[in-house]
Design a protein that fits this description.
The protein is built from 18 helices and 2 strands. A two-stranded antiparallel ribbon has the order 1-2.
Length: 448
């Protein structure tokens, strides 16, 4: 009994260390690069370039991150998590250091958009996937903690301090060196699955509501077969067909990111447009960040306590985002607008629940592949959302119509999240009835 208690405490301690370490790795890579916009004015003065081109170089990093994610998960199967994430942190560091030496805009597209973008993509998707595989008992909390995004609060202040002391080139150089700490952390916390022989078990009862490949056994052993790259790519493409709920989740994710980008990218401009000072308008982003951070840190708690499922909580946050977005045009007083933006930040903080729901649908074995497919499919969403809102504003001359359109898209995402699951649960009940009545199991499974 004592040995079991001691083993449980040791396992919990390892989980805590792993989650904290993974959180720091993501802060030093994904969180840091998201704050690159602080340098835009410095780059515009130094490189004699427009903010539009520089903004494109900055946002293109996110597109590269999403597009390269499936390749990053394939690399894991070849060299393991530890080496892949280490390589990603090194590329991120090199990209930042090279960006500190650029002399023209096209060099920034190579150093920041391409090199740093590829580096972050190898870190982000694989870190989330590794946590999803390793922290099975506390996955809802761990998933929220590692993607909390505290770097968005801490790094802008640090960057401004370093800029005032060493200039923008010196600060980028120092930040590139700081990312090397993520490399050292990766060596310690990410165990290479190729050198650690462990057997992973799935507890099917935890996924019975959404898993489409249930078996009668309570547990089944997962054995990863050696497959070629072509076969693995085929498995990636077949995931939405093999798991229809995952296919609908891809639609939800894309609509969510389009509507989120369309709303948040133009929030400050809308505030200035209705007469709010630029300083207070910019403060809205900080308020949004606070709501987002609180959501990511604590959304996993009620799921862990079985107070609500991840699917239901995600559905609630989608509906909340729709309501908040439609209320923004009606908030003419700053205090009301700030309150709505805080709640909007909380609702958008539910994005990591997509990864948790994906894991529940496809299972632990296919979770890394689902991460690659999810990120790859949502690559154009941010650009489309920002453009769509701007286009509506140009046509109508008002942000009100644009925010109403974004609210409608949030509601569409809510419907695609909720309605297919009603159909699936109804089908599951019908399948169970037929199976109990003597219908061969193979027949009912073939329908799925």
């Amino acid at each position: 009994m004592m040995d079991t208690t001691k083993e449980t405490k040791t396992s919990l301690l390892r989980t805590v260390v792993l989650v904290i370490g993974a959180h720091i790795v993501l802060i030093l890579t994904d969180g840091l690069t998201l704050c690159f916009g602080v340098y835009l004015n410095d780059l515009a003065d130094e490189l004699d370039a427009g903010l539009g081109v520089l903004g494109a170089a900055s946002s293109l990093l996110t597109t590269v991150l999403h597009l390269f994610s499936p390749i990053g998960t394939l690399i894991v199967l070849k060299i393991g998590y530890r080496r892949t994430i280490m390589l990603g942190t090194l590329l991120t560091s090199c990209g930042l250091i090279l960006s500190s030496r650029v002399q023209s805009v096209w060099q920034l597209f190579i150093s920041h958009s391409l090199i740093t973008g590829i580096g972050v993509s190898m870190v982000y998707a694989n870190t989330v996937a590794f946590i999803g595989i390793s922290c099975r008992e506390h996955v809802s909390i761990a998933n929220g903690v590692i993607t909390a995004g505290t770097g968005l609060i801490a790094f802008p202040f640090l960057i401004n301090v370093l800029r005032s002391m060493y200039g923008w080139r010196g600060s980028l150089l120092l930040l590139g060196a700081c990312v090397l700490h993520a490399t050292l952390i990766s060596v310690v916390i990410f165990k290479d699955p190729k050198t650690t022989k462990t057997t992973i078990y799935l507890e099917d009862e935890k996924f019975i509501e959404v898993r489409a490949d249930d078996e009668d056994d309570e547990k089944k052993e997962i054995i990863e077969e050696e497959k070629g790259t072509k076969e693995l790519l085929k498995e990636y493409l077949k995931l939405p067909l093999k798991y229809p709920l995952f296919g609908f989740l891809l639609i939800v994710s894309n609509v969510l990111f389009i509507s989120f980008a369309g709303a948040i990218y133009h929030l400050v401009s809308h505030a200035v447009d209705i007469g709010i000072s630029e300083q207070n308008a910019a403060l809205l982003m900080t308020i949004f960040g606070i709501g987002n951070l609180v959501s990511r840190l604590f959304n996993g708690v009620p799921i862990k306590l079985n107070l609500i499922t991840s699917n239901k909580l995600f559905s609630v946050t989608l509906l909340t985002a729709s309501v908040c977005t439609i209320l923004i045009p009606f908030c003419t007083r700053y205090v009301y607008l700030a309150a709505i933006v805080l709640l909007f930040g909380w609702s958008i903080g539910s994005v990591p629940l997509i990864y948790l729901i994906s894991r529940e649908i496809v299972g632990v074995r296919n979770f890394p592949k689902s991460m690659g497919v999810l990120l790859f499919s949502t690559a154009p969403a941010g650009v489309v959302g920002g453009f769509f809102t701007g286009w509506i504003y140009d046509v109508s001359g008002s942000y009100d119509t644009a925010f109403f359109a974004m609210a409608s898209l949030f509601f569409v995402a809510f419907l695609f999240q909720v309605l297919p699951r009603f159909y699936y649960l109804k089908y599951k009940i019908d399948r169970d009835i037929h199976t109990a009545a003597g219908c061969p199991k193979s027949v009912t499974e073939s329908v799925i």
